[in-house]
Amino acid sequence: MAKRVTRREFIQGAALTAAGVALGACKPAATPTPPPAPTKAPPAAVPTKAPPTAVPPPTKPPIVEITLSRYEHPAQPIRENAPGHLAITEHTGVKVKFSVVPQADYAQKQQLWLSTKQVPDLLHVNSPDQLRDFAKPDIILPIMPLVDKYAPHLKQYIEQNKEMKKYTNGGVLYYIPAVLFNWKKLAPMPLIRKDLLDKAGLPEPKSMEELFETLKELKKANPGTLGITCRNGTKWLLVTIGYPMGTGLGAQQWYYGPYYDHDLKRWQYGPIHPEFADMLDYFAKAYKEGILDPDFAATTTDQWHQKNSAGKGLFSWDNMSFLVRWNLAIRQQDPSATWGAMPTLSFKKFHRGYDYSGLYDGWAIGANTKYPDRVIQLLDWMVTPFGIDLTNWGIEGKHFTRKKPLPEKIDDYTEAGLVKALPKDRNELLPEVWKEYSTKSDPFRTYQSDVGVGQLDFNQIYDHSVIYLWDPPGEMDAAYAMLAADTVLKPRGRQPSLEPAESERVKKIQADCEAIMYPAFDKVILGQWTLSDYDKAVQEAKKAGAEDWEKILNEAEARLA
Question: Global pTM?
Answer without folding.
Answer: 0.78
